[in-house]
Amino acid sequence: MVDSYQRMFGQKPKTNMWSPLEKGDHPECDTSELLDSDGVTQYQLLIGQFQWAVSLGRLDVTTAVMTLSTFRSAPRVGHLNRAKRVCGYLVKFKEACIRFCTGLPNYSDVPEPVFDWANSVQGCLTEEIPSNAPPPLGLAVIITHYVDANLYHCQDRPVGYGYNLHDEWDSNRFLFKEKVNR
């Protein structure tokens, strides 16, 4: 990535940032000049490299890449500058990785949330449990889900990407615990 960046822009990416995008940045509100065809090609190459980095596990830039990739067909100068920032961030934190804790967490002090789903938007549903399911094999696994339904990070879009959420879910955070046998 550094070599292609250096070929495109004649210098190495700046690494003086601590986040992929600036706090409070809204690329969808950018009104800078549209890029020429060479600039569009450079932008698309960077976005492709970022998408590859995400698929290899650099999940810390997922939101920035998703947001910037929506402008691939008609990027602006400000979008290219943001892409350069993401590249610099990836170079600065090139040793970043995903770590998995293999032990089971202790949730004894976390209260179990109680949800009343009787009046949910899906109505009164019952879970269908197959009667002929085989017995679970392997060790117990605790899966923790942190769900943030606040998807209104883009000011010019009324609903987040691919989701159709109701207002009562926005800006609420829930902690779900479930035990799964494998």
Can you walk through the features of this model?
There is one protein chain. The chain is an alpha+beta fold and 182 residues long. The chain has 2 domains: 2-92, no CATH class; 117-181, no CATH class. The chain is built from 4 helices and 2 strands. The protein has helices at residues 2-9, 37-55, 62-69, 77-92, and strands spanning 140-148, 173-181. A two-stranded antiparallel sheet has the order 1-2. The model is unreliable at 159-182 (pLDDT under 50).
- Major sheet: 2 strands, antiparallel
Mean pLDDT: 80
N to C succession of SSEs: HHHHEE
Proportion of residues in β-strands: 5-15%
Strand order of the largest sheet: 1-2
What general form does the structure show?
A: elongated
Q: How many strands?
A: 2
Number of helices: 4
Round the Cα radius of gyration to an integer and report it: 22 Å
User: Would you tell me the structural class of the helices and strands?
Assistant: alpha+beta
End-to-end Cα distance, whole Å, is 39 Å
Estimate the helix proportion, in percent: 25-40%
Number of domains: 2
Poorly predicted segments: 159-182
